[in-house]
Structures are given as structure tokens and as C-alpha cells.
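User: Could you write out the 3D structure of this protein bound to adenine? I've included everything you need below.
Assistant: Certainly. Input first, then the structure.
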Amino acid sequence: MKKFQVITLFPEMLEGVLNSSMMWKAQKEGLVSFELINLREFGVGPRQQVDDTPYGGGDGMLLRPEPLFAAVKKAKQNDPTAKVVLMTPRGERWKQSVAREWSQVDHGYIFICGRYEGYDERIVTLVDKQVSIGDYVLTGGEIPAMAIIDSVVRLIPGVLGGEASAEIESFSDGETLEFPQYTKPAEFEDLRVPDVLLSGNHAEIAKWRQENSLKSD
Ligand code: ADE
């Protein structure tokens, strides 16, 4: 069973996502397990401080190294072979082919979610991979971690089951986006389903789908 651990100051942000829909089903069927590690529990001093001002000056607060190191140590005790992943807009851009690789390896992952204006750079000495979900800056790594976990877990054999085939849908070849699909009714407020899809002609339907799949950039 693949274990996904997430180090975060806001575990409640992930709880709903990881305990719903396919992520819930994947847990229930024993295919994955999720563990949320609250960084606050590893805070320094009586106020359990997790952040401080940057050396050299500047706005905002940075996550201190001690809580991050202690939280990673705890996560490694839970799962010694797990790889440590840091969510950062400076990381390598996430993509479907990497999601597929991660769904096939037999070790777990520990995600570190940055918050506030950043983190003490010394954390990168513990990190196996830095990942970005795109060239924009979010307020923290929680949403990126959820996106990555979702994209990996749905590819684990048995998670999608008969409900959809990960093989034939979007991005399965790494660059083709899924074709448009329609369901009943065939006509809705003057909007008609393309005739070819109602024709029963499988060769024509396959051709139409091929032509209407977009290439990603
Ligand atoms: N943290 C803030 N923005 C991010 C992004 N785009 N990708 C990953 N982590 C982030």
C-alpha cells in the first residue's frame, strides 16, 4: 500500500479532499493511505513557533528549519523509504508522465507544504524533489500537494476500476487531450449532440474523436 504523508500547517485543508470521492475509495480499498502531519506540533518553544523573520531583512515570515526537520524525521520513521517532495513554484513542472511514474513505484511520498512567504532554504537538504504545479504563486503548498496526490492516486491500478479507463482518456500518451463527450438527451435547448456520435458507426466515431482531440503545448 502506497503511503502519502503531508506536512502542513493546515491539515483541515486536505481532509475534505483526501476523504472524498476516489481518494476515499482508494483508502477504503487499502490501495493507499494518507497521513497528515501538523507542522505546528513541531513548533519551537512554548508558543510552538513555526516561522520567523528572514536574515538580511525583507517582508514576511519564513518557516523555520527545526519544525520542518522534526516533521520530516517523524514522517521518515513512519515510512523509511519514502521520498521527500517540496512544493514550490521554483520546482520542476508537474506533468502527467511523472504522475504515471509515481503511481508505479513501490515507495511512499512525504510532501512538504510551504506557507507564508517561504521557508528556510536549509530544508532542501532533506528533499528528493522540488515540484511546481505551474508558473503562478499560491499562498501555500497544500493545493499543489492535493493536485499531485489526486493525479497519482487515480492512476494506481484498481483505483478507477471500471468507472473510467486511465489508459484511454486525457493525456494518456502524454500530449493528447481528451475529445469532447456527450450524454442524453440528444437534443437539449436546441443544442444537438453531433450526428456522428448517434450514428452507431464505430469507425466514424473513432475518427471524429481523433480529430477532436486537442494537442497540448
Ligand atoms: N507553492 C506556491 N505556489 C506553488 C506552485 N505553483 N507550485 C507548487 N507549490 C507552490
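The chain has two domains: 2-153, 176-215.
User: Perfect, thank you.
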